Amino acid sequence: MEKYSAAATKSTPYVMFDPAIALFVIRGESYPENAASFFSPVFDWLTEFLKHPYDRAIVFDIELIYFNSSSSKANLKLLTMLEDASKSGKDITVNWRYYADNDTAHEAGEEYKEDVPHLKFNVVEVERPK
Amino acid sequence: MLTNLYDIYRQMQQEQIFFSFTGPVSQHVVEGIGAALKLKMEIEENDVNTIQKVFSIYVEQIQNIMNYSADRLNRDKEGGDIGIGIFVVGRQDGHFYVRCGNNIYNDKLFIIKEQVEELKTMGKDDLKTLFRSRRKSPPPLGSKGAGLGFIEMAIKASRPIEVDFTALDKTTSFLSITVVI
User: Fold this and answer.
1) Is the model's pLDDT at B81 over the cut of 90?
2) Closest CA to A104 of B174, B129, B53, B3
3) Whole-complex ipTM
4) B44 falls within a domain
């Protein structure tokens, strides 16, 4: 399947889903004018991808420094899609990455982890890039 | 007629308002002013989590103007329209606050007043529980976002959200919302 990619803007994250190299990344800040329309093609791609067999482990690296309340809802939708796919046998792991001094992102990761109990979900502290 | 901005400028300084904006709020405005606001707070070495809270409340407030102001500017080229309003960021008794104002239809004003009254009675843990359960449900009718903005602000605020309004005519009022961080 073709990869899905979106360059980061000031208010939308970098998105790169490339099955050919087993790379699934969301990184940056998320407070678009309309979260539903930003995330809709991301969800469409993911729905299609999760329908097909995939013989490698699927690891999602999510590193969101800041997201607004409507993006927060979109994140949960994405995680719920991944949880459902896990339940039906896909090997999926999510690494929720946050910087040590970002309490909000850390707490958000812990809350999402509770919201999707059937998904392998790691909350990982990472170094802030210099 | 306003021929000189000095009086307004001086008054804002006295009130410790260090950011202000009036006009149509496009996403470019949200991003640009947000970046400048963050930069100013970073230079003054405020705690990272305080900066994040102020920024987050700023985004929820200004996007409310963009989406819900009754005063709107049509954008024929890009489609849709954007809200017109005013907002200030300032300091008061050692706390940052974000205050936003815009015209609003009275039916929407009623809904906001009710919601804010309800949130006032809740503690942080209950607010977080409400946020998480609302996040799982479909958005309320007529909401362009997720209907989560006020709960998010109440969680991050250090005092209850303040709602102030001035009736303009039978159908609209000027709404002013203050969130203290």
Assistant:
1) no
2) B53
3) 0.93
4) yes
